[in-house]
Amino acid sequence: MIELASVIRNLREELEQAVDAAEGEALRFELGAIELELSVAVERTGRAGAKVRFWVVESDVEATANRTSTQLIKLTLQPTLNGSHNPPFVSGRAGRNEQ
Asked: Annotated region Disordered: where (predicted)?
C-alpha cells in the first residue's frame, strides 16, 4: 500500500513535468479539475496522540486488501500555479520510458 500523501505528491511531480513540457509548444491543453477515485485503507494506532493514516490500495496487494477494511474515496483537485491566477497548461508528450 502507498500513503495517500505520496500518491498526491507523485501526481504533482508528473503534472509539473507536463507543465514544463508545454513551454513553447504550439498546441497545449488547459489543465482543469482533476478527479481521483481511490480505494483506501484507514490505519489508526492505539497509542495516545496517534494520527489516522490513509493508505491507497495497490492492485497487486488484493489479498491484503480483502483482510483490510477499505473505502472508496473521490478527490477533486483544482491545480494552480504558484504566484499566478492563470490556469496551467500541459503538453501530452511522453517521456523516454513511457509508451
From this structure: 80-99
Whether the Cβ atoms of residue 39 and residue 70 lie closer than 8 Å to each other: yes
For the segment 67-78, what is each residue's pLDDT rounded down to a tens digit? 456 788 899 998
Residue type, 16: E
CA-wise closest residue to 16 among 65, 76, 88, 85:
88
* Domain boundaries along the sequence of the chain: 2-84
Q: What cell numbers appear for 25 in the block?
A: 509548444
What's the predicted TM-score (pTM) here?
A: 0.68
**81 Ramachandran zone, left/alpha/beta (phi>0; psi -120 to 50):** beta
Mark 1-35 as b/e (b = at least 16 C-beta within 10 Å). Answer: beebeebeeeeeeebeebbebbeeeeebeebeeee
Read off φ and ψ for residue 42, nearest 5 degrees: -105, 130
